[in-house]
Amino acid sequence: MPRKRPEPFWRSERNCWFVQIGKRQHRLSPDEAEAWRLYHELMARPPEERPADTATAPPTLVVEILDAFLDWASRNKAARTYAWYRENIQPFVDRIPATLAVAELKPYHVTRAMADFPHWSNNTKGDFIGAIKRAFNWAADEELIERSPLARMKKHAREAREMAVSPSEYAQVVAKVREPNFRDLIELSWETGARPQELRKIEARFVDLDNSRIVFPPTQAKGKKYHRVIYLTRRAREIVARLAEAHASGPILLNSEGSPWTKDAINCAFCRLEKKVGKKYHLGAFRKGFATEALKAGVDTVTLAHLMGHRDPSMVSRVYGHVQQDPEHMAAAANRAKGFKAGEDA
Question: Where are the alpha helices (DSSP H) in the chain?
């Protein structure tokens, strides 16, 4: 029986037509007519000149490697990890020529793409470079290319985010936020100390109002090994109950357009807020504020670690506890260390 002739197929997640020859998928074009034209041009070549023959194959394209990597990641990585790679790689794909060959790729192309995003922090730039480098390292490991052309490119040093929101800052921020959906997001971060990515994926099916908590199964939790339990204060319970009733399926925290919050959408909202309050905040600062206020209120580190989703209590003091940023609290602690009680003159 003759072998079936390969034909173009549509990949919706990449918004493009492809054809598979041998073990390689070749990107054709987002336009169907152009894709078939390229396909017929490719298949009109003698078999020994087609891409399946590495001796006569055309140059491997950058977009082919990135497509192959994302396809692999979609099947071998967690959905959130795959989405992270896709969100970081897509802006690069959108800013390079479709015909750019791997042999022509330079760190300059990555640097030039980042120039279109002057508002990006060093952390965001580092993620962008890291995702692209990971794709080419993977391709080299799989022997799709001989070596990564970005192997020597250095990532930006990450910026430590020491900011922890104080109660007075929180009150100021909430007073300035007019958009109710964004206010819900900020309030839940402050009231629960949940991770930003956890807030984005809360669904009604994870809500346990009888016990004032949200329970993520291991498949939805960080690390994929244990349940993640987020406990709700009275205010947090009110917000979650309202949103869970309004959104029976899918994420309950939505932006003003009715779509689930994304990293970029949250960042844009905080950029708009910065114009009102004169300071750029992020959700991690509210999580750290939660930890700091809990420590000041006397919550022990073991309990606080569980509240924040950590199994190692030392994480609280090393990363999240910023009690040293409150001079009044530290001075009072110093007096208590010497036996003075609150209200007594030291």
Answer: 32-43, 62-76, 79-93, 107-114, 122-141, 167-176, 180-192, 196-200, 234-246, 263-277, 283-296, 301-308, 314-315, 327-337
- Which pTM value belongs to this model? 0.58
Instruction: Characterize the bridge pairing of strands 9-11 and 207-208.
Output: unpaired
What tokens were used for 240? 């979650």
Residue 229, both tokens:
């339990």
What's the CATH fold of domain 167-334?
Answer: hpI Integrase; Chain A (1.10.443)
Question: Per-10-residue mean pLDDT for the chain, 346 residues long?
Answer: 65 77 76 85 68 56 93 89 93 92 94 93 91 95 91 78 84 95 97 95 96 94 89 97 97 95 92 93 92 88 89 71 61 64 58
- Per-domain boundaries in the chain: 9-49, 62-141, 167-334
Residues 120, 145 contacting (CB under 8 angstroms): no
